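FAQ: What does a multi-protein file look like?

Like this. Sequence, then tokens, then the next protein.
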Amino acid sequence: LGVSFWGVIARLAHSPRAMGPGGNGSMHGASSLPWGGHEMHPYEASYDQLLAPAKWLDTITKEDGFQDMLWYLACWTVAWVALFYLITCRLRSRMAAWPASTKTHENDVYWCARNLIGIIHAVFISLLTVPTILMLYGAPDDIRFGATGHLAACVPPENRKLGLEVTIAVQAVALAGLAFTAFTVADVGISLIHGLASVDFIIHHVAFITAGLIIRSHCMLPFNAAVLLSMEASTPFLNYLLLVRHRGAGFKASVQVNGIVFILLFLIFRLLMNPYGTAVLWLHHDSAMPPTVPRWQADFLLLAVAAGTAVQFFWFPLIAKTFGAGLRDLLGFGGSRYDGEPAHEGVDSHQSSEPSGKKQSGSAAK
């Protein structure tokens, strides 16, 4: 799927504005409407009319594909849980061959399984969203802020000729958003069952489940959703570090290399692309979301996205200090006592915000 997207991107490089309605990216007249537009909603609603959550729930259930979306969400959640326990079963027979970690909690089979499934999840999400960012980066606003009422797969309406590339892109983001939200739901249940959760961990996950459901239940903000989800690109390297950094000198080189890749991806997707996406959303906050989105949901998303961006900058100095030492050691500058041990235990939870007694996996990074 990732290879297919890169092929699409190569095609778009020759005609980046072909995604716009009419093929010219015009923002005037009817083409200034999101690709879903009001025609996808059989009702007219203002922020005030949909302010109450109860009223919104009654309205959203009338959308095309709402029941299918819930069914897909349930299936994805069950699939993630099943994959977690499959990994756990495989690890039970294989962990004996691993070098033991000096940290007791890192020898727990469930803790290790959470890191491994987090890697699988992050790779899947990144393959869907990173190419989509490149595809939608130069698209007109009516594409980047498009919305549709077909909730099952976020299929653009047939009367808007967006082209195959955009149709694939927005549905890929919708799929990634559903898989991400389901993974977060599954992670909450798994962590509670196996004692891997803390109060702040639960709050963190509930916030992201809420944001994911809001965006996905309106099939909106494909560009911003892709930017947010693409932050998972750094997670596989972080999870690998968490798995092996305390398992002996044999992993020292791989820990250092993964640390460098992790910090580079952190810079690109969390400190560059994420603030850009946040700025774009705030600059267009009055028109980015369809008028059928309740005000409380719109305000929650704006604040959540801004807070998420601020958190990345809060954690970066600690991350730079930790992995900068490894970079100096790897390049042979000497004087570094880096051994894969973070300067502070908080680096375990720089994304997951979960400094509990039994350390959480970086797979909760969002």
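And here is the next protein:
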Amino acid sequence: MPELQTVSPLPCNSPTERPAQDGPTTPWDQNQMSSTSQMASLAAFVFLVSATLASGAASVRVGLTRIHSDPGGIPASQLVRDALRRDMHRQQSRLGRKLATASDGAAAAATPTVTARTRKDMPNGGEYLMTLAIGTPPVSYPAIADTGSDLIWTQCAPCSGEDHQCFNQPSPLYNPASSTTFAVLPCNSSLSMCVSALAGAPPPPGCACMYNQTYGTGWTAGIQGSETFTFGGSSPADHARVPGIAFGCSNASSSDWNGSSGLVGLGRGALSLVSQLGAGKFSYCLTPFQDSNSTSTLLLGPSAAITGTGVRSTPFVASPAMAPMSTYYYLNLTGISLGTKTLSISPDAFFLKSDGTGGLIIDSGTTITSLVNAAYQQVRAAVQSLVTLPVIDGSDSTGLDLCYALPSSMSAPPAMPSMTLHFDGADMVLPAESYMISGSGVWCLAMRNQTDGAMSTLGNYQQQNMHILYDVRQETLSFAPANRAATRTVALSPEGGARRLPRQLLKRRAESTMVGPN
């Protein structure tokens, strides 16, 4: 059985779009599983890990850091503005996409292709990296921790030639040919992205599932594989090795992913790390956004817990069955207050509609919260009624809608009351520093409006300095301010210390995934 560590409590403050293609070629045939019994063996190991997590005996612990928010040389305001413009494009594009199955004459039965919507962003700042290792021997893998998606993927060698290209990453490329535990995931595996395209038919001989995932301004493509993942700290005694994790091995990607080696999905779907480990629940704590000294940990399993007088819990709203909405963690936001004033927002403003539009999700990979326009305008007006500083046009300088000029770049913002998000059965209280953001003499409302009918999103900026627990089995989200809760999570941490607007405030949402047997 894999060795899993038991985790003790720790304090919160511990020190250009590419068209769909058939997919890149794969040089990894020599590492494919040679028999069904080998795949069954891997599945048994994963079952043992899942059973251990469920028993309460142990948890998986993964370190996290924030991607450096200071890119150097480029004004932060320009980066924020560009990120917001891209996000608007992605939102509009995503709404126009529908789940579809494409076929091509008589060849369709042998080589079906599925187009499915999903959602992701590029890791250019404001997101959190989780560090783990892939393969045997293990190769370090710093990747975005994202509760808004399922697929786990990293760049794979080779990354040269006409069909292969990779972005710069902070760690060596993972080479499946150098790992003794890599296997191509069979097309008829329950975790294959191609299994539905087969429609029950036997897979073609030597079938390998190729994916081509596009993202408003970027893309990644590769083959699904199975591999041993290693979790834990720097000491080998703290490591937990888990075989048989299904993941994406990308040997072609756009250049928009600098700062990471890929992504780790923590959503509701079967491909997410949470689901594959059978963790049941997971937790994290986001340190203050400007904190440059703290480190962090993500816990998956029974050690992920929050206790104390400040803990509040709200049920998840059932996710739509259609992709990609099925992977999101929806919440029932019923209202918003600023100080003692309850804002005039319709009770159905955040209602999740039967066609999958609307609703509100909580997402660790998005930085700035977006609100449906009717609610956002109420928040904006309430903030304006309390601030007497000169209003400046933030749409050009930062991309944010409501900004004020501070007396100087060193001036502290004026005091503001807390904002309360009223969820079903629980109130989340945000201090001013969790809904306003300052830098370079500019002070802005760190929220934006959502005008196209897409879902609203509770981003990680609004989750800072708060313990967050996702209890997937009990279908609840629990949270508490970091100074009022005892917890078995420690904080997610930013890297840089400059008091500037973050490099990018919004995720880049993935528009589609092309998958098909090859």
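Q: Is there any per-entry metadata?
A: Some entries carry free-text notes. For the entry above: The chain is about 15% helix and 30% strand.
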